[in-house]
Amino acid sequence: MFNAITHFFRLIRAGFVFAREGVLGLPDPQALPPGPRFVLKIGRLIERRDAGEGSARLAAALTKLGPTYVKLGQFLATRPDVVGKAIAKDLESLQDRMAPFGQQDAEKAILESLGKPVSELFLSFSPPVAAASIAQVHRAEINDAKGARTVAVKVLRPGVERRFQNDLDSFFFIARLAERHSAEAKRLRLVATVETLARSVTMEMDLRLEAAAYSELAENAKDDPDFRVPKVDWERTARRVLTTEWVSGIPLNNQDKLREAGHDFVRLGRVLIQSFLRQAIGHGFFHADLHPGNLFVDCDGRLVAVDCGIMGRLNPKERRFLAEILFGFITRDWYRTAEVHFEAGYVPTHHAVEDFAQAIRAIGEPIHDRPADEISMAKLLTLLFEVTALFDMRTRPELLLLQKTMVVVEGVARALDPKLDMWATAEPVVRDWIERHLGPVGRIEDAATELGGIGRLIGAAPGILTRAAGTIERLDEQTREGLVLAPETVEAIGRAEAKRGRWTTLALWVIAGLLAVWLFR
């Protein structure tokens, strides 16, 4: 009860901020029932006169509410099916919008995390150069066995873990409440969405995990001549502090400087799309926050990605389904594309494959009738999500980051090359994966893996059978002699029975008292 009251007060505070910032002016009152329409009307009485316009009001309100709500806004940008396309697009702007925290707090966190003061770890340590919802970044200089170099030092905000946990508890509360009373909320899997957000935030708040993500992504991209991530300085990295090499490149959103440096925009757009697809389909581990502020072009023309706090994973089965779905759209094989959705479990089996193939054809044919530079994989995924309600498809949280990242990546690539042919760019990566994993070589390797697993099982069979025989023999002895319980087990059962007896007696007295009151009233 106390927790529920606490959650309600937190939500009331958030509602007040939303009302003040004009967020209650976004919904159409005529589309709401009388009760919510009246609440909306009352709430608008406290709206600020100078509140922003349009969906920008929501971004302003989330920024005022603090780090957790900014992170929630960034996450909801991946759910246009929940918040609508216009609001989702506006929420994508919630990047690096937080005010920095104090220099002394940052230096204290480094001392507590690394056991040494800043003066011993770095030759210089600048004020923050960027501040986001969870951490901020400082530029520093070091000189060690590897020589003098510049590094980026990321430091968590003070108290951010506790604040996030409190707010996430409130998000879970409202999501469970919504699913309990709304079938649509249950289909959208709001609780699962908050769980995905919670997992993402938990991993982001342990910077050792981000360092590991840098390392894994670098290992996967070691043979990619056009894409890389900064190297981690493990000696100056801990749970609340992450140190990486400083990227001396040009931000991808600074087209003037890129043009002055002579970089090929068409090539950069192609590199971005293909690198992302190689990450997602090729390795099943992809950078899920590839907005322009996290992308640079170094002096060698390579694309450099920073901020690996949000990463996405796809298991081998999901990678196969993704490749086959994209390949099905490229080759216009609508029936096979529909079959893949059923094999993946995305569509319930009580629907017909032929009906779903018809729906996919309705999405795919108009796209293919357009010029190549107007065909959008991001739009394709968005349209696919729009048919989810028609075919009872539940939200797949593991695919939300993929959809969101593909939308962002395509937008960044088209900003570099408005004539980008998405299908021609994606086709080599998808086709190579299909041929490599679903062709003869891939099938032979799969068979070898299966045979290896069977071989290991056969090798372990004697030990398994011996242990099973021993277990059966002991059970047989206990059956003949009667089941024997350990003394402490008997004692625990006795305590439990005594406790249950006391509660039963108390319950009987309460019932007797209530009956007496009812009989003699």
Average predicted local confidence, pLDDT: 77
Percent of residues in beta strands: 5-15%
Number of strands: 10
Question: Main β-sheet: number of strands, strand sense, barrel status?
Answer: 4 strands, antiparallel
Describe the strand arrangement of the main beta sheet, using strand numbers: 1-2-3-5
Classify the helix fraction into a percent range.
55-70%
Note the overall shape: globular
Number of separate domains:
4
Beginning-to-end CA distance, first to last residue: 32 Å
Oligomer: single chain
Poorly predicted residue ranges: 503-512, 514-521
Number of helices: 22
Class by SSE composition: alpha+beta
Radius of gyration: 29 Å
List the helices and strands and how they pair.
Elements: H1 2-20, H2 34-43, H3 56-65, H4 67-76, H5 80-83, H6 85-91, H7 103-114, H8 118-121, E1 124-131, E2 135-144, E3 147-156, H9 160-181, H10 183-188, H11 190-204, H12 207-220, E4 227-228, E5 241-245, E6 250-251, H13 255-260, H14 265-283, E7 285-287, E8 295-297, E9 303-305, E10 311-313, H15 316-331, H16 334-343, H17 353-368, H18 377-386, H19 397-416, H20 422-438, H21 440-481, H22 487-519
Parallel strand pairs: 4-9
Antiparallel strand pairs: 1-2, 2-3, 3-5, 6-8, 7-10, 8-9
Helix pairs in contact: 1-3, 1-9, 3-4, 9-11, 14-15, 14-19, 14-20, 15-16, 15-20, 16-17, 18-19, 20-21
